[in-house]
Amino acid sequence: MVMLNIHVITIFPEAFESYLKTSILGKAQKKKLFKINFINLRDFAGGKHKQVDDSPYGGGPGMVLKFEPIYKAVKSIKAKSEIILFSASGKKLDSKTVRRLSKNKNLILICGRYEGVDERVAQNIADETISIGNYILSGGELPALVLIEALSRHIPGVLGKKESLEEIKGSYPVFTRPEVVAAKGGRKLRVPKSLLSGDHEKIREWRRKHSKF
Hints:
Helix content is 31%, strand content 21%. The chain is an alpha/beta fold and 213 residues long. The chain has 2 domains: 5-152, Alpha/beta knot (3-Layer(aba) Sandwich), CATH 3.40.1280; 170-210. A 5-stranded parallel beta sheet has the order 2-1-6-5-8, sandwiched between helices. The chain starts with a strand and ends with a helix. 23% of the residues are buried. The mean pLDDT is 92.
């Protein structure tokens, strides 16, 4: 039984294919731990040219994704879903938001493009608007991938062990063999002594001290 269905509304569904087929995400989908459905926005556009955008009222550069195709695309998804719109002006994505969203059975992710999305989508269709950082991207496809990967880690069975979640074990610096490596100028870079001590309490304390979560 699929634990999470993610419906992605985009004009570039092909942009997701390679990344979602690799590594942990690819294996999780084969196990049917979650499913990603792509909805091509152009399939819901009218006219001979399947136009999904138009020039902004008030003038200015760029094109704006139209309300109607997005509305029709969302309506085509029958399952009750939490609807997310990606926008630079949205709420900053964080671990708390990811954990909350991962508890849904169905999510709809709306990927903007061009100059943006008709504001009536944010006001009347989306349940919330999310940003992945204080910078501008050309579209919502990369933010959608970021959210999908973050969500997948909270689905039981996607990671080998629940303890692999940084939110549980902490997010601390990690090192591996060899113990000493040579760097620029002949410097010797060493693994912290606490991690080599074999003293589990010292190791836990070092990791707690350096953890970002």
